[in-house]
Amino acid sequence: MALHITGDTAADTLLTENPLALLVGMLLDQQVPMETAFAGPLKIQQRTGAADAATIAHMDPDAFLEAFKQTPSVHRFPGSMAARVQTLCETLVNDWGGDAAALWTEGEPTGAEVLKRLKTLPGFGEQKAKIFLALLGKQYGFAGEGWREASAPYGEEGSFRSVADIVSPESLTKVREHKKAMKAAASRINATKER
What distance in Å separates the CA atoms of residue 111 and residue 50, rounded to the nearest whole number? Predict the structure, then answer.
């Protein structure tokens, strides 16, 4: 299993080998391109030396924010996202012994249970939790019972809806096209409502 999300070998290797990096990448995946979000964990590691929840959770918030702000920035909203990453790491330390993978490995959970666990994390609403669950099932080896149903529609086989479906440059293009079509449809609906 090797992830191919960012187009950067070092960033993708970190995502593949470090469950926390993958979770943080998903957290950062809003209002920036997917590749930027999922390259964020490597930037954080390179700038802070930290790749584990306990170290990140206990870092000085101002120093952590400075690492986020360095050019190129980790996220277009460095202040709120740096705080959110630290809060996520604190939650993992307090609730999961600092082990991000425990969310989907502890106690042989079903897909529905993992979805429930993900939704308790700061920054993970229903949609983000479903997309992450689909990513775990499609590319990260999670085989908990009912994961496709729990992550619907993102777990659907052969779809190109989200980061869960990116396995190559071609699939990235298809996911982008799908997202563009969804935005256009939403714009048309909103324009109709405003009339």
Answer: 30
